[in-house]
Amino acid sequence: MNKPVVYSGIQPTGIITIGNYIGAITNWLKLADDYDCIYGIADLHALTVRQVPSEYRQRALSFFAQYLACGLDPEKNILYFQSHVHEHAELSWILNCFTYIGEMQRMTQFKDKALKHQDNINMGLLDYPVLMAADILLYQTALVPVGADQKQHLEITRDIAVRFNNLYSPTFTVPEAYIPKQGARVFSLQDPTAKMSKSDPDPNAAVSIIEDPDSIMRKFKRAVTDSDAEVRFDPESKPGVSNLMTIMSEMGGMPIEEIEKNYSGKGYAVFKSACAEAVIEHLKPVRERYAALTGDKEYLMRIAGEGAARASAIAGRTMAKVRRKVGLVSLK
Ligand code: TRP
Fold it and tell me: CA 255 to CA 261: how far, in whole Å?
């Protein structure tokens, strides 16, 4: 490995939305030339809230297949399940011993989740950022693409890395946030002032990348707009319509101005259907590849196994360093 490492983890919860696709995944496809990219299905992280085991297993596998279906090439990127690489749990234990309880209690996501899951404020929930730090630091990651909600976790990762490096000697690369160029932001179809969320309880708010065409059409027709019936890009006063225009522009590959011109005076019904059509059309190959992949579990598991082996080889080197520095006895 000699290119800078980009690492990202994805919790296998909710759905992979067209917002994730436009805002993140399409960017990742381009990163592979300049970076060594590692994407982990963060299946240990999502255990911090209760999951139904059979559904969880299914969903994690489905997420893996969806990433492949989007065109993430397993030859050029490392794609794997976090739980298949034992070094994550191992390093996270050691990093726990270099992290203060107060630091974790201050995390805003911990506070939010503790409020939301009052009957299950488990240690994992508190420790979540340390596992995330382990994910990142194991691979000597230079850059982590993160949204606003994960900034604080990246900051604490940096603090832990610097602390460890200062106590011993340089061991971990101190990662930076990677702010992708102009990644378009996609908002909820039901509340265009809120980001489209992969776990929105309202099924009409988000569209999955493998959703069937009828359902996509229905959701776009129901999308919240405004009452002046003009297709004009104005995120401030027309967030709903502007959001649909962004989606159409990204999926249909045409500039916003062209959309404005083509749909001026045509009314929202026509525009919304066209927008849905652009999404359906663009995602067709993703849907088809996904169907083929889920029918070939043997192939999926082979790719997952190879990804885990490659990840583990890198993670193992970092772990060996860490063990030596903290003074654990080596068998060799
Ligand atoms: N916590 C991240 C999220 O919820 C997921 C995640 C786990 C992650 N490990 C990571 C993101 C490492 C970046 C790097 O979005």
Answer: 10
CA of 11 to the centre of ligand 1 (A): 7
Q: Which of 293, 332, 312, 275 is nearest to 87 (CA)?
A: 312
Task: Please tell me the pTM assigned to this model.
Answer: 0.94
CATH 3.90.25.10 is held by the domain 213-291? no
**pLDDT reported for residue 2:** 82
> Tens digit of pLDDT for each residue in 47-97?
999 999 999 999 999 999 999 999 999 999 999 999 999 999 999 999 999
Can 198 be counted among the known catalytic residues?
yes
5-178+297-326 and 213-291 in the same fold:
no
The pick from 6, 11, 125, 131 for probing ligand 1's pocket by mutation, whose C-beta has the most ligand atoms within 8 angstroms, reads: 11
Choose the catalytic residue: 3, 111, 116, 198.
198
CATH no. of 5-178+297-326: 3.40.50.620
